[in-house]
Design goal:
- By secondary structure, the protein is of the alpha+beta class.
- The protein has one domain.
- 38% of the residues lie in helices and 29% in strands.
- It has four helices and six strands, in the order αββαβαββαβ.
- A six-stranded antiparallel sheet has the order 3-1-2-5-4-6, covered by helices on one side.
Length: 160
Amino acid sequence: MKFLIVLIALGAVAYVAHGRWQAMNPDVIESPVYAEFRMHMRIQDRDIDTVLFGEMASDEDCQERAQRLWQKLIDDCKECTLTLSSCRTDLEPRYQRLFDDAPIHSTYLSFKRGNRFERNGRMVVYGLTGDEGDMVCQTILKQFKTRYAGMVNCVNGHST
C-alpha cells in the first residue's frame, strides 16, 4: 500500500513538473515578456556596450534565463558588467523594430527560435566602427550557429 501511495505521489509531481515545463517552453510564444540585458566592457580605452533583447514565454522564464545568462557571463567574461534592465510585456518602438529585422545604424545579430527551448532575440553592439560591427557580428554568428537550431543572421547597419 505504501508503495502505491509513493507511486501516486511521484506521478502527481511528474504531472505538475511536466505542466510547468510545457508552460515555460511553449511551441508558440503568444504574449512575450521582453528581456533586456545590457553588458559593458572596457577594451583598450574603449567602451563597448552590448544590448540583448529576448522574447520570453513569461516573467518567470525571463528571470530564470537572466540568472543562467548572468552565471555564464561571469564564467566566460571577467571584465564584463551585465545588468538585467527589465522583464516587461512592452518594448520601446525603437527596439521593437529590431524584431522586424529593420536596419539601424549598427549591425546587429538576429536570432529566431528553431524549437520550443530557444527564444527569439536581437543583440546590438555599440562603440564599434561599421567594419568592426560587421566583423564582430559575423564572428558571433558563427559561434551562435554551433549552439542554436533556429535561424541566425546579421542585419547590416546603415549610415545616417
